[in-house]
Specification:
The protein is mainly α. The protein folds into two domains: about 100 residues, DNA Binding (I), subunit A, CATH 1.10.30; about 40 residues. It contains six helices and no strands. It is elongated, with a radius of gyration of 22 Å. This is HMG box domain-containing protein.
């Protein structure tokens, strides 16, 4: 798998790839195998339900030789590293961070809006200082 060079010209392409993939980007050899072969099996036997197609693909995956499984695992690892690099690049070059998902994070963001310290850093510091106090007691 060839990694594309990271430049500002293909920023929007990378951004589209990141947002179109799953939220967690948890790809492994099995899921890559399922995604790559699903349409072949479904078009060959359209009467099968989705559940049966996945079961058939799982049986095919179990019957693969060890060399093919290792190759699939290597491709999945390369894909994960590519997504990780693309995400870091996008965040460094203008993609906004995800909004806070709790009331405490909203409150901390509002309080630390003008400061140079991020609310995540502040939360980590307050939690670690509280843990130190608990360890002393």
């Amino acid at each position: 798998m060839q990694l594309s060079p990271f430049s500002i010209n293909n920023f929007f392409v990378i951004l589209r790839q990141i947002t179109s993939t799953s939220a967690h980007n948890n790809s492994n050899a099995f899921t890559n195998f399922i995604h790559s072969r699903y349409h072949e099996v479904k078009s060959a036997k359209p009467e099968l339900s989705n559940y049966d197609v996945i079961r058939k693909l799982a049986q095919l995956y179990k019957s693969l030789p060890v060399e093919e499984v290792e190759k699939l695992k290597l491709e999945a690892k390369e894909h994960q590293s590519h997504v990780k690099k693309a995400t870091k690049f996008a965040y460094r070059n203008g993609m906004p961070k995800s909004p806070p998902n709790s009331g405490l994070k909203v409150f901390m963001r509002e309080k630390l809006k003008d400061s140079k310290v991020s609310y995540r850093y502040y939360l980590d510091e307050t939690i670690s200082s509280r843990l130190k106090i608990l360890c002393i007691l």
